[in-house]
């Protein structure tokens, strides 16, 4: 099996950061491995055992605790189930699975079956949002409601814009480890507000991980004809990857029951915007779950 890591030393460094970040969350997590048809999946669990299940799906090419930190206000009320995405940094199987067809949906379905959950609420930022859209395409009956945060699978920025803001500085950073190149990338991803802890991890991921650029496919209208679950779309006006207005326009065309909110932020939300997002998510879940 080919590894997503460029070296064993790099892998150890990333997993060390994973543990540091998990400890910083200050919550009691249990962790376990679940066998799926695509391989072993490492899952973090927290929140009350009798709480309603809430799957939080990891953003792409980051570490699971970083994604979880965005939604920590939900930990006290819901039973959080947060798998490390297969083929992404973390403790799950390292071999990637197809992002285009039903593989991601079947992977989530295996996890739902393991926990004996017929249907659940889902939150997915970025790549995680794209996974939810794959689930909505192939197994929509398993989604009670969904929150898509700057999701893949709706619209993408121009290749020229992405190359200028991300790809070229990334190539330079990998060649030179230039702090200014990393700063440019993280500033463009977050509108100059990325936490130092996140910036440090992003730098290591860029250096030590073969970044998976195969995003979940753009969702077609006919794929979601059977998906009617309440859906909340939260997007950033300055998102360097998934432009807000295009995502909203696309979502309103293909998702029957969607509410969209746009924030003055980038792909990585500012702390102030995260507070606002969590308030909206809490309201949405209370009303729809």
Strands of the biggest beta sheet: in what spatial order? 1-2-4-3-5-6-7-8
Task: Assign the CATH topology of the largest domain.
Answer: Rossmann fold
The figure for the number of domains is 2
Q: Give the CATH H-level superfamily of the largest domain.
A: Alpha/Beta hydrolase fold, catalytic domain
- By secondary-structure content and strand pairing, the structural class works out as alpha/beta
Organism: Paenibacillus xylanexedens
Pfam families: Abhydrolase_1
Domain AB hydrolase-1: 68-178
Protein name: Pimeloyl-ACP methyl ester carboxylesterase
How does this structure look, described?
- The protein has 289 residues and is of the alpha/beta class.
- It has two domains: 8-158 and 212-288, Rossmann fold; 162-208, no CATH class.
- It is built from nine helices and eight strands.
- It has helices at residues 8-24, 64-69, 103-114, 127-138, 159-176, 179-190, 196-208, 244-254, 271-288, and strands spanning 30-36, 39-46, 53-56, 79-83, 120-125, 143-149, 231-236, 258-263.
- Strands 1-2-4-3-5-6-7-8 form an eight-stranded mixed sheet, sandwiched between helices.
- Strand 3, helix 2 (64-69) and strand 4 form a beta-alpha-beta unit.
- Helix 1 (8-24) packs antiparallel against helix 7 (196-208), helix 3 packs across helix 4 and helix 5 packs antiparallel against helix 6.
- It is globular and about 50 Å long.
Provide a brief overview of the structure:
The protein has 289 residues and is α/β, with parallel strands linked by helices. The chain has helices at 8-24, 64-69, 103-114, 127-138, 159-176, 179-190, 196-208, 244-254, 271-288; strands spanning 30-36, 39-46, 53-56, 79-83, 120-125, 143-149, 231-236, 258-263.
């Amino acid at each position: 099996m080919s590894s997503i890591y460029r070296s064993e030393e790099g892998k150890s460094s990333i997993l060390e950061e994973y543990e540091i970040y998990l400890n910083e969350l200050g919550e009691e997590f249990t962790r376990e491995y679940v066998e799926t048809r695509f391989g072993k999946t490492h899952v973090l669990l927290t929140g009350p055992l009798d709480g309603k299940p809430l799957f939080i799906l990891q953003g792409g090419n980051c570490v699971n605790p970083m994604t979880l930190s965005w939604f920590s206000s939900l930990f006290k009320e819901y039973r959080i189930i947060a798998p490390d995405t297969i083929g992404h940094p973390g403790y799950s199987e390292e071999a990637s699975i197809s992002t285009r067809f039903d593989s991601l949906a079947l992977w989530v379905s295996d996890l739902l079956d393991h926990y004996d959950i017929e249907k659940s609420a889902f939150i997915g930022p970025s790549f995680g949002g794209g996974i939810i859209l794959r689930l909505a395409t192939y197994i929509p009956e398993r989604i009670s409601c969904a929150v898509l945060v700057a999701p893949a699978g709706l619209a993408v920025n121009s290749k020229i814009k992405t190359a200028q803001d991300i790809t070229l500085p990334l190539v330079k950073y990998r060649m030179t480890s230039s702090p200014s190149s990393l700063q440019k990338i993280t500033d463009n991803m977050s509108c100059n507000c990325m936490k130092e802890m996140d910036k440090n991890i992003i730098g290591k991921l860029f250096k030590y991980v073969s970044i998976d650029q195969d995003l979940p496919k753009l969702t077609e209208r006919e794929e979601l004809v059977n998906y009617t679950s309440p859906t909340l779309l939260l997007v950033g006006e300055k998102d360097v990857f998934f432009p807000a207005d295009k995502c909203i326009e696309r979502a309103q065309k293909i998702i029957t029951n969607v509410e969209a909110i746009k924030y003055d932020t980038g792909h990585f939300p500012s702390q102030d915007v995260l507070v606002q997002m969590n308030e909206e998510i809490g309201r949405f879940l209370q009303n729809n779950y």
